[in-house]
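Notes continue from the previous slide.

Worked example: a multi-chain complex. Inputs as given:
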Amino acid sequence: MITLENINRSFGDKQVLHDLSFDIADGRMTGFVGSNGSGKTTTMRILLGVLAADSGRITVDGTAITPAHRSAIGYMPEERGLYPKMPIIDQLVYLARFHGLSRQTAKKRGLELLEELDLKGEPTDTLESVNLGNQQKVQIAAALIHDPEALVLDEPFSGLDPTAVERTLAVLTSFAASGAPVLFSSHQLDLVERLVDDVVIINDGRLIAAGTTDELRRERSSPEWTLQTDADMGWVREVPDITVIEFDGNWVRFAAPDSTTAEAVLRKALDVSSVSSFAPHIVPLNRLFQEVTQS
Amino acid sequence: MSTETLTRTDSAANRAGFTTAIGLVIEREIMVRLKSKAFMISTILSIVILGALVGVSGALPSLFSSTDKVAVTSAGAEAVKGIEDIEPVVVDDVDEAKALVSSEKVDAAVVDSEDSPTGVAILSLRSAPESLIGSLSLTPEVELLDPDAPDPALTYFIGLGLGLVFFMAAMTFGNTIASSVVEEKQSRIVEILLASTSARVLMFGKVIACTILAFAQIGLTAVAVLAGAAVSGNDLVLGKVAEPIAWFVPLFIIGFVMVAALYAAAASMVSRTEDLPSTSTPIMMLIFLPYMAVIIFSSNETVMGVLSYIPFSAAVAVPMRVFLGTIAWWEPLVSLLILAATTLLALLVATRIFERSILQSGPKLSWGQALRRR
């Protein structure tokens, strides 16, 4: 587990991170969410050692992070980049050797990765000669080339077509499933919601919320239910402790303090008409995000 | 796609050490240039052309010389005997010689003359051949007090040559290192690199690689020039400039490291190649102005003395003064020390700027901003 504790960082007189603390658990996908300029990239750079923190500490399984730890992280920066005019396999080997791999090992692993990622084109082609989708595969290969023990990816899905998104997803989930911690930032909250086990939300460099998506829902808003019946549901507004959020004749979405209160609504509905559906409503992360960043 | 095999294994990779990492950067920088057709073609062309020029220059005098046909009378024939480049055409008398000269069948005529102290006179249509006049004239005895004294024209050309070598290398490879830095910054690969190594490693690796390339290119050119000189038997190139060149080499290497480091720093301050001139022009002027000064003031000993202590002109001014023999034995050493100290300072400043600016994207920084940044 990687733990960030009270990380502070300023650029000039502008403080961009304020006492930021959160965990990246082993074998879990942690989504890192925040508006533009909220400090996500800075946090990731500090985690990788590309930037230094002004104060605070980072630990790996309880001990302070070392360069060897950092070297075992696979990193994909937000603005992707490799050498456009260098052969694909050569740059993978070059990057791997900074992590202490021998040329032979690096080349073997690079070729395997490109094969698995289904690169269309020769490994000896220059990067600029293959299309964007394939360049993206090479970028993923670059993050995995040194057989990392953790992954940190800054906006791995931005600018990808649906096929590429699925491909990247498959790589990330299989990687996390092997027991490694994975942290990635994304603006695509629907994706984050589908994908992540844990969410870390920051705003203006401050931690707003951290935990599993379920925990966040429980903490941040009262649970909601939807109810669909044959008859008009106007009477729901009169039930004590119930807040109607959305109403459309025979359909209603309401918030209730607990499930007993919600079930009372269901019982009453059954008395007046037949019920075609009754279900807890999952608040989309999108709305949760709006709530927590605006509150 | 099978994703099972993408899982990690137990072989945790170790971060490459400082020197190993620098070695990797040097290797890549050199291999990229060696694989670049443009670089190889321009290098090979310049080497071949320079070598050939020096080789041909030895043969030039014979290409331009020509044999003059000269009509001679009996006394004339005696006078021109032993003069090179002359083909005597024996005639009976002065009139016949005049006729041949008038019809331009011969270039000149040497005929009997009782008025002339030499006993002969030269006839020619418009102008008499210089070599002929010289050979037939009485010349006062000339005593050369210092036959080895440097020829001012030669000094000028040595200054021009060494200056050109330094200036071209600094400009070419300065721009090479700058574009290599901007490429990594612009493509953002620098962020991946910085996650596995330090900014210092990147900068030192590039500076060392460019110095090696520049020196190899100049070394090969020097070999070609010397080979050309050997072919043409031009002992001037071989003999007199050995000592100046012995000083030029260390001054060049150290001075080049300084220039390369400054170029790397200049490049780290911009995000796009288009912005590069605005930060690299000051460095170019630092190289260009002293270079011009060395050429303009090549015969002014005071100015040359000062220039040999200025780090940016030392590599050219010191060898020139060594050639002229106007330099005390300790002066090149002091100049070398000053240059080394300046280079060390430049490396420190450049590393500082590089480390602080390399992740900066967006508008370019000024030198002042880059130094103040934290």
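Summary box: Chain B touches chain A through 36 residues (CB under 8 Å). The radius of gyration of chain B is 31 Å.
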